[in-house]
Every structure is written in C-alpha cells, then in structure tokens.
Amino acid sequence: MKKLARKRVRPGFVRRTRQLPHKMKQLLRIAAAMLGIAGLICIGIFFFKGAGAGKLAWDEPTVRKSLMTFAYKVYGDPAAQNGRYFLSKIAFHNDGSSPVHDFSISYQIPGYISWTTPETHSEIPPGQTIVQLYYPQLPSWVTQLTSQTTATLETKIHWSDKAGKSKEDILRSNVILRGRNEVEYTDLPANEVVTWYDAWATAPFTISMVTPNDPVVKEFVAEITKRTGGTQAGVTHSPKEIAQVMQATYDYMCETGMRYTSDQGVPATIGDVKTSIQTVRLPRDVITTNEGLCIELALLWASALQHLGLNPTVVFVPNHAFTVVQYGQGPNDIIPIECTAITPMAVGEKQPVSFNDAVEMASKELEYWKKAALIMPLDVEAYQEQGFRAPELPPIEIDKIKDILAQRSNHTAAAYATQAPSQNLNATPAPVRQGYHRWVGANGMISIDIPENWTRTENAPFPGMLFTAQDMQTTVAVEVFYYPTLHTPDEAMQARQHEVSRNGGRVKVANQQPKENTTYYAGSTSYRKGSTQWVGVFQGTSAGVIGFFAGADKGRFETNQPIISDLISSARFSAPQ
Asked: What is the mean pLDDT of residues 260-289?
C-alpha cells in the first residue's frame, strides 16, 4: 500500500494541533461522573428490590352458611349453574415486592371430608390476585342426617417467600348441614331479596328430589300401568296416551287412598339470610306413607311421569306447586294437573274431583299466575342437565314395597266390591241382558250373569265348586262355590285356602269386610305358573255357605275392573228353598 506523504510545513510557519476548550472538558467529566452515579443507583435499586419478600394477603372468606344435604351433588359440581353453589370463595393477593412461592390450599370438614389434595401455584407475582373456590365432595351418607347438624370447614393455606421461609394458616368457619328433607327456599341476604323470585331463589334445588330411577317409583308406576294395559306414553308422546296415563295415575292415587296434607314453611334466619325452611320428603316416602304436601305430590308426579319417558315441569306459584306435562312444541301443548285434588277438601270440594276437573283447575291456576307474573316453571330435564341431580338412595327392601302396593290394590278391590253392587244382593234379579247368559245354581240360591261368549264349566272337579266361567282374552273369570256343611263365610274361605294349598298353591287374603250376613274379601291366589287377583263374596245361610270369586290374572285386574264390577253387580243370593 502506498504511504501517504505527510504535508511539509512551509518555511517560516509553525504547526499547531486542535485542542478542546477547557470548559468543555470539565462538562464532559461532570456528565461522565453523573452517568456513573446513576448506574450505581440503578444497580442498587435492582439488588434492593430483588432482596424484598412477597406478602400474601386475603379477603374475608365467603362461606356458604348452610347446605341442603339431599342436594350434596349440586354443591360438589363446579358446573352446576355455572359454579354458583360453591361452599367457599377466597381472593388472595400478593401485596409484596417479590413473588410468593409454593402457594397451596386444601380443605377438610372433620367427620365428613378428609384433607383434600392441595391446589397449588408455584408462584404468585407481585401485585397479582388469585381466587380459590371450593366445591365439597360430600359422602352420599350425608343424607342420613335427619336434623340440622353443625360442621366446621377448615381451610389450610401454605406459602413461602424467596428466602424459603415457609408459612401456614388454617381458617375455620361453621356450616349448617340441613336434615335430608329440609329445603331452604332462598340463599340471598335479606337486603337483596326484593321480588317474589328472590324469596324462592333456591326452589330449583327441589328438582334434585325427582327420582325416576328409584326402584320404589318403578314399582309405583308398574301398578299404574297395569290399568292402561302396559301403555308407555313416552314412546309416542301421543296426547291421548299421555292423558290416559295421567288419568290412570290420578285415579290410582284416589282409589288407593293417597291424600294431600298441608304444611307451611318455617321462617329461619342464618346470618344475613332470612329464608323459609320446609320439610319435603322424597317420592319414595310419599309412596310408602300414601300422603304428601303439594310440593311432595308434584315431585312424585314428576318422578313417575319422567320414568314413563315424559318431560314434566314442576311449577311454583305463591304458596303452592303443581305439575305440568309438555307433549308438543306449542305453548298450549300441555296437560297440567292439580295434584292436591285427590283430597277434595283441599280444593274446596265436598265430592271426589275427577281427573278432567283436576286438569281444568290447574289450567286456570296456570293462566292466573302467568298474568300476575308470579310463576316459576322448572323444566325437570333442563335443570337436571344443569347439575340438579338426585342423590344416591339407600337400598330398600323392594319386596316390602311390592307387598304394600299389592295390599293397597287389594283393599281398593275390596272397597270396590262393596260399593259396586249398589242394589240388594238378595233382591229379585233384573231381566237378562242381551248377549248374556244367566247361570242359576245351588237350588236357586245364587245367580250370576255371564257374557255368552265366555267358556263355562259346570261342576268342576274341586270340592265345593259348582260353576266356572272365563274370558280367555282378558283372563277375567268367576268361580261359584257352595259348602252345605259350613256355617260362616270365614269357614268357606278357610276351606278354599286348604284346597289350594293341597294343590301346591297359596291363597292370601289381604282384606275382608263383613256386611250383615255377607263378607267381602280381597286377595290373591298364587301357583308356580302364575297368580290371580280377586274379589270374593260369600254369604252364610241356614243351608250352608254360598258365594263366588271374581278376578283376573295378576297385573290385569285393574284394567278389567269394569268387567269384574259388572259380574259382582249381576250376582243375586236367594233364601234356601
């Protein structure tokens, strides 16, 4: 590379170099010093802050004051109505200048829930807030509590700062566990209760008492569907079939003596919540006791109808509840039922109320409260999807339930038998109707009218049996007996029981009602191949005991009650000749 030649100084001249002014140099020195000091300050601040501690603080916990134990699944479900029904809510803040480390929180309810697996956060940065919600997984046996019980929620909080210093605190709050049948109708503080809807804010919890899969409800429905020939209205959702099943349900309740009982809620104050608490039993309890409040009857109807595949709605109005079934998409595609009409006095009537009248009553109520804008319809299926699920029910001896229901049917049959022959059984027989055959036997002591197309047999090969007739299609049959050496109806019944027992069967008398010299019986006869349900009518005379049984295969008795009633009504006893 070619070197550049340095320019020579001309003769007579002196070379000078350029230098900064003195003041400028001083300014630069001062600026450099200030920058250095500022850097040191920044470094000091950085190290000072890094050495600070996190500071965990929290707001006063929000803890639910009471839990309805029958709805324990609702409280344990974070998805139920978008998580509204938490037991505890706490907001945590880091008010320090450094992260809070190793944060964890766990809960226990001594005697009910052991310490839960801790929920953790590795760190909470300065200035940040986290919110912890607790949904308790209560055991199913909590529904065994029969009265109010106080429990304690314990909340364990653990955290540490950057230096690794570990801290822990335990918070405690009392919680009332309601008895399994206690319903609270609102959980809102008194100052937030403005409308009727606010006062009934937790009424949807009652949907957790709709139990279509309860074996007791299944047996109850089975007794009802016997009356409809096994019709399952939910298969087609035909309005006609739905009405048929609903009428069978209503009639069954009336005929088996189910009744409405009245009971108002009890006011209660829990902290800042003023509510109404009512004892409401599950449908299985209503079935076994054969009585219920309006809300209990409404829930029983909803359970039975949902078991049949229908979509019921439980409707709350001021101081009352009833049930509605939706069978179509239109607003008028409904069949409401006034559940309390099974007890006429409850609806201001002196005589029994028919199913159609009970529907009309509910329709008017529905319209009235809609106009008043005081109505809360709870679509059962929709609320179940939102988390209002039934509790796990304890096992029950279902055979006992079957016996209870069978006895009611038998009692109904006996009452039906005593009421059916409104005329005197000893009166002169009416003319034979067209299409009927009148059988007369035992020297004219008894007569009974049988449809002509029935199979008839005289002098069957059983002791005391004079005559039998049966309709093979419906299985309805009549058997006439005469015991000339006996004196009372009970002796005749014992003779029949003994004969059936000799042939491998069993006669069970569920009910008997003496009326002058005539006794009415209701019961069943069982063999290995099947069983029948019947009504028996026997009369003691100076020439022995005469009488008959009228019945059908078990499961077909209720459906064919009109035919059985007709047989009983046509029977006549005459004095021995």
From this structure: 83
Cα-Cα-Cα-Cα dihedral sign, residues 289, 291, 292, 297 = positive
Q: What is the mean pLDDT of the chain?
A: 86
Of 3.40.1000.10, 3.10.690.10, 3.40.30.10, 3.40.50.740, the CATH number of 424-573 is 3.40.1000.10
Tell me the DSSP string of 176-204.
EE--TTEEES--SBGGG--SHHHHTTTGG
Chain segment 371-404, per-residue pLDDT in tens: 999 999 999 999 999 999 999 999 999 999 998 8
Is the Cβ–Cβ distance between 175 and 64 less than 8 Å? yes
Which amino acid, one-letter code, is at 7? K
> Residue 238 half-sphere exposure, CB side, CA atoms within 13 Å?
9
Residues 6+ apart with CB under 8 A from 296: 280, 281, 283, 285, 286
326, 330, 332, 338: CA torsion to nearest 10: 10
- Confidence class for position 20, pLDDT limits 50, 70, 90: low
Residues 49 and 39: their CA atoms lie apart, in Å, by 15
Provide CATH code, domain 56-177.
Answer: 2.60.40
Domain ranges of the chain: 56-177, 182-396, 424-573
Q: Are 324 and 313 spatial neighbours (Cβ–Cβ below 8 Å)?
A: yes
Of the candidates 136, 170, 193, the residue with the CA atom closest to the CA atom of residue 61:
170
- DSSP-derived letter for residue 175 is E
Q: Name the 3-class secondary structure at 149.
A: strand
Name the residue among 487, 414, 410, 482 with its Cα closest to residue 448. Answer: 482
DSSP string, 422-462: -S-TTSPPPPPPTTEEEEEETTTTEEEEEETTSEEEES-SS
φ, ψ of residue 270 to 5 degrees: the values are -125, 100
The order of strands in the sheet holding 320-326 is 334-337, 320-326, 312-317, 376-379
Encoded tokens for 150: 């106080």
* Cα–Cα distance, 507 to 319 (Å, whole number): 48
Contacts of residue 573, Cβ cutoff 8 Å, sequence gap at least 6: 425, 426, 445, 446, 518, 539, 541, 546
Place of tokens 């191949």: 529
Q: How many CB atoms lie within 10 A of CB 158?
A: 17
Q: Closest Cα to residue 556, out of 118, 105, 229?
A: 229
Instruction: Name the nearest CA neighbour of 157 among 65, 55, 78, 58.
Output: 58
pLDDT in tens, 147-191: 999 999 999 999 997 677 889 999 999 999 999 999 999 999 888
- Residue keyed to tokens 């929620």: 153
Chain segment 482-494, per-residue pLDDT in tens: 999 999 999 999 9
Strands (E), 282-366: 291-292, 312-317, 320-326, 334-337
